[in-house]
Amino acid sequence: KTNRETHSVSMAETKHVTIAYGKNGLALTVPSHYDVLHSRPAPGLADEAAAIRAALNSPVGCCALRGMVRPSDRVVVTHTDITRATPNNRLLPVILAELEAAGVPRDHITLLNALGTHRAQSNEELRAMLGDGIMDGGYHLVQHDAFAAEALWTLPAADGTGDFTTSAGHKVRVNRTLAEADVRIFTGLIEPHFFAGFSGGPKGVMPGLCGFESVMDNHGAANIGHPRATWGVLKGNPLWEEMSETATRLTQVQAAPAPAQGSTGQLPKTFLVNVTINAARQMTGIFAGEPLAAHKMGVDFVRAHAMVPVDRPYDVVITTNSGYPLDQNLYQSVKGISAARKVVRRGGAIVMVTGCNDGLPSHGGYAAFLREAGSPAKVLEMIAQPGFHRHDQWTVQVQANVLQ
User: Fold this and answer.
1) Torsion of CA 251, 77, 327, 18, to 10 degrees
2) Are 369 and 379 in contact (CB under 8 A)?
3) Neighbour-count burial for 294-331, b at 16+ CB within 10 Å, e otherwise
4) What is the model's pTM?
5) What's the order of all strands across the beta sheet hosting 269-277?
6) Which of residues 123 and 12 earns the better pLDDT score?
């Protein structure tokens, strides 16, 4: 809506718009003078499997995946959880076939769900995410638990005499299964992110596979409130820079495996396979190879297609959180609210159209924090207290800042 006048609109002055809502979308009839903002179209790949294989065999900055692995390697393939739109059931089978073609047996392959601090998925949800072939294929399936001390490993310092600390002074604990692997393959989706700049790449390690305390340090109030912790910004973004630093350190070390598993005695090998998608959830690009180099290529692609400038703020913005699975709860939908805030005038209105089949949700700390605080001002007051830490406080903080 481009002006503040209220007036009646005849059907002749309207247009139809379908927005991403739940699993089936939602048809709206709006005044014809409303602007419709959407990403620049990127065509889906004609043959996704062939494109994935090509990327695996001609990666950026490293050798082909098949040449990287040996039959004796213990391989971990990470994947995003149900709150992300990554086409896991189309991406992972191609990667797994490539590993098996290299001679890696299935009992040496672990699929690791990078949950961050989110809840674990049910078997039904995993089957929907991964497909029957993987669920029934004899692979090890592990779900990350950020709260289980025995499932975490502290990154050591480079000199081996103590613990690694980031430039921000934080120690980092990562998933032990991941740390013990000889080969680590990170998969994921690259898209703009509301405080990390872009998803994918190092974000698959931090927060995806780190301990709760490490996530809290990275997602603390000062970082979330930093002016460069926002959509599309990487350089100077304190969250992103610590994510990158953590992921880089992980490539240099390996946890001692259980004696029965043996060890290759070499540094672990790391490979990234990130994808981009369009509104139809078709893959539009495959970016594989050395993690930082491959991710940068993907970011450049996304920046050119997914981010659209506007010449003025709007009075009213109607938006979504890109439909299911991204709009399954209000916690996730704060991302869409944050994006809308970038293009609405101060004092304007945001209409968030989101499915929320999972509610607020009831799991995690988001709903409890909202109820306890009761107002945006109280949220920001509580978060500003020294030593304050609360699960999911980062999303509540972003929401409070939008509403202030």
Assistant:
1) 110
2) yes
3) bbbbbbebbeeebeeeeeeebeebbbbbbbbbbbbbbb
4) 0.92
5) 140-143, 109-114, 75-80, 183-189, 269-277, 283-289
6) 123
